[in-house]
Design a protein that fits this description.
Structural class: mainly alpha
Number of domains: 1
Strand content: 5-15%
CATH topology: Rossmann fold
Helix content: 40-55%
Distance between the termini: 67 Å
Shape: elongated
Radius of gyration: 24 Å
Length: about 180
Amino acid sequence: KRYDVLVDAAARWRTRTPPPVVVVAGSGPAYLPVAARISAARAPVTLLGHRDDVADLLAGADVAVVTSDWEARQLFAQEALRAGVPLVATEVGGLPDLVGDAALLVPAGDVDAVDAAVRSLLDDPALRADLAARGRARAGTWPTEQDTVADLAALYAELVPAPARRGADPAADTPSTGRR
């Protein structure tokens, strides 16, 4: 997830007036090393631990940031765009195809690029509004849960042979060898 990149960029924001509040929801093996890095850098980052209210957190966010080295179809990025929160994300894996032009994409591991992208959003309400609108529009093109279930059911029906009809001749579907 490269929280080190986020922490290092956030350390630069502590001199902003007011400094942005940066929160990281979730927990895992990186928690203690990230906490140590936050402390050492005196970065304005709060680790929230496990949360069930990410949608509520996003509702209060001005910007969402993904600093991963690799992602396929990143859930947090999807949640941010659906919520209309401007997104800064690394240009890796499936993220560019997922977000299209609805996010500011930066190279992985590039603290300067993350810093510049977040600053540009914090300093430009019109850009934030534009990305929020593009994010919602982009999310509107993604399949719904019902679409996905229907597609999977159709695929399953295509791949699994139909059940044998009761009373049907089992040899009826057997190809003929031409001999009797």
